[in-house]
Amino acid sequence: MMPTHSSPPVGTVYIVGSGPGDLDLLTLRAARLIGEADAIVYDHLIADGVLELARADAEKIYVGKKSSNHTVPQEQLNQLLVRLARAGRMVVRLKGGDPFVFGRGGEEIETLVESGIPFEVVPGVTAAAGCAAYSGIPLTHRDHAQAVAFATGHLKDGTINLDWPALARPKLTVVFYMGVGGLAEICRQMIAHGLPASHPAAVVQHGTTRRQRVLTADLASLPERVEAAGIGSPALIIVGTVVRLQEKLAWFQPPSGSGT
Ligand code: SAH
User: Fold this and answer.
1) Which of 70, 98, 102 to mutate to test the pocket of ligand 1 (most atoms within 8 A of CB)?
2) Ligand 1 centroid to 10 CA: how many Å?
3) Which InterPro entries does the annotation name (predicted)?
4) Residue 156 catalytic?
C-alpha cells in the first residue's frame, strides 16, 4: 500500500527481549524503548513489573501463550504488529528472555520484512544464562564442558524430535527449554543414547525470581524428584556434569516461603 499524504509515517517495531524474570536483568535499551513506546504487545513470560516502565497512555496488548494453548494465533499476531506500525505507532513487541532463542522472533520479523515495516531487535538475557547464573551452574567449565547446546524439549504426540546421539555426549552441557512436560522422555532418551543413569541433571523453575526453585539429581531419578516436588513450567532442564558445581557455587537465596 502506498502511503498517501494523509497517512502517518510508518512506525518502527522493536522486538525486545525482557530477560528471564528479574526486572534488573532488563537491558538499558529495552527499558528506554518500553518507556517510549506507543503500543506494547507482550507475552505470558515477561519480567514482573516490566509494564510499569511503560507510559501510562501506552496501549498494552496481551498476546500471551501458555504452553501449546496459543491465545493469539501467530499469523494474527504478525498482522497486528503490521497494523500498529502502519498506524504510525512506535511498537515494542516484548518477549521473555531473548527474542531469538525459542522466541519466534524470526517468524514475526519475516512478516515485517515482507510488509516493509522497519524493525529492530533488542537482545535479552536468555533463560539459560539467567538460570545458570542464579542457580550456580556454569554452563561451560574447563573441567566439565567445552560446549553447550540449547534444545527444545517440547513434547509433541508423546515424543520429542531431537538428534539424541548428538545431545547425549560427555563434556557437553545441554539446556532444554519447554521441557518439564517431557522430562521423563528426555532423561530416558539421554540414557538410551549412552549417558550413564548417574549423569547429573537439574531443573530450575522460575529462575532469577523470588519463586526460583532448583533441584539437582541424576538422569535416573530427576523425573520422579521433580514430580514429587511439584515443579512445573516455566522451568529449564540442565544436563551435564557442571550440575555438580551447584552445591558449591549457589549464591542466590530467594526469600523462603514467598511462594508468589
Ligand atoms: N525466548 C525465551 C524462551 C522462550 S521459550 C528465552 O530466551 O529465555 C519458554 C521457555 O523458556 C519455558 O518453557 C522455560 O523452559 C524457559 N524459561 C523462561 N523463563 C524461565 C525462567 N525464569 N526460569 C526457568 N525457565 C524459564
Assistant:
1) 102
2) 32
3) 4pyrrol_Mease, 4pyrrol_Methylase_sf, 4pyrrole_Mease_sub1, 4pyrrole_Mease_sub2, CobA/CysG_C, Siro_Cobalamin_biosynth, Uropor_MeTrfase_CS
4) no
